[in-house]
Amino acid sequence: MIFAVLVVLLAVATKGAFLSFGNITNLLRQTSINGVVALAMLFVIITGGIDLSVGAIVGISGMVYAMLTSNRLDYQLSSVQAILIALSVSILLGLANGFAVYDMKIPPFIATLGVMTFVRGLVMYISGGRMITGLPRGFTNFASMIFLDVPALVWLWLAIALISGIVLKYTKFGRNLYAIGSNREAARLSGVNLRLNYLFAYAVSGFLSGVAGLMLASRLAAGVPTAGQGYELDAIASVVIGGASLSGGVGTALGTVIGAILIQTLRNGGNLLGIDPFVMQMMIGLIIIAAVFFDQYIKAKRG
Asked: Could you tell me which of 35, 40, 100, 275 has the fewest CB atoms within 10 Å of its CB?
């Protein structure tokens, strides 16, 4: 309902420019990468945790791929090899988050903040703070590919969302995440392996963030050391606006997709109306606060 009202308002305010085919296509292409990061965040938030390192993993994934394939460096691997290595690094960072949260008993906010800071520094160190170009043409062409008038990046995002929805709803792993987020102690007493599920949830978050990093590198045709900065905030906003609870136990892939589109719609509409991007950032911050407030309010009302 809110989304429909927003679309109508933007269509009127921009005199139809918002609903043009080119703008809608551009909006979906912009949403696709943030949408995948939001899905990564969803797996962790359902457990009652949070992953502030998703944006940093986006950055290192693209940078690792760029450093291993650029024709301007001394060594070159094939795209497949570089993609596998970039995703492996992303999964390992996700596992490090899970280990810190479960085995070291560090609060998710602190653990993932530490990993985020570490990874940001690592990316700057290995790249010398420089953008790396010269990526394989086939890889960079993927971001501009169109299938049935829809960008390939969007198809990939929707496929990941569909798989995420199936995993969360129909697999034992998905049901375990909801059980842990709803009541961790009850989940443990009912036989759920908490350690394994925590590690797997954060590994999935790392993997999907790595995929998003490769999508961004393909779109930018380069490895950018600052890539993915701030993505964690948009991801949290998308998940919460999509109906998930930061307390855990609630959230869907479909809701997260809608939340991601809503956030990007606000940014896109703001650009068309000439609103300062810093003001849009402030508005999104207020939206996160409002969404969490209403979540807490509804929970308190239900008793």
From this structure: 275
What values do phi and psi take at 150, rounded to 5?
A: -120, 135
Report CA 65 to chain centroid distance, whole Å.
18
Q: Helix (H) and strand (E) counts for the chain?
A: 13, 2
Tens-digit pLDDT profile for residues 66-81:
999 988 777 788 999 9
Q: How far is CA 289 from the centre of its chain?
A: 19
Task: pLDDT band for 275, please (50, 70, 90 cuts).
Answer: confident
Tokens of 259: 């939340």
3-state secondary structure of 222: coil
DSSP string, 18-42: GGSHHHHHHHHHHHHHHHHHHHHHH
Per this entry, what is the length of the chain?
A: 303
How far, in Å, CA of 69 to CA of 75, rounded?
A: 7
Among residues 38, 53, 97, the alpha carbon closest in space to that of 251 is found at: 38
Question: 260 in helix, strand or coil?
Answer: helix
Decide: pTM greater than 0.85.
Answer: yes
187-205 confidence digits (pLDDT tens): 999 889 999 999 999 999 9
> How many whole angstroms separate alpha carbon 156 and alpha carbon 145?
11
Give the count of alpha carbons within 13 A of 185, CB side only: 0
Angle of CA points 131, 136, 138, to nearest 5°: 130
Q: Which of 114, 61, 56, 51 is nearest to 89 (CA)?
A: 61
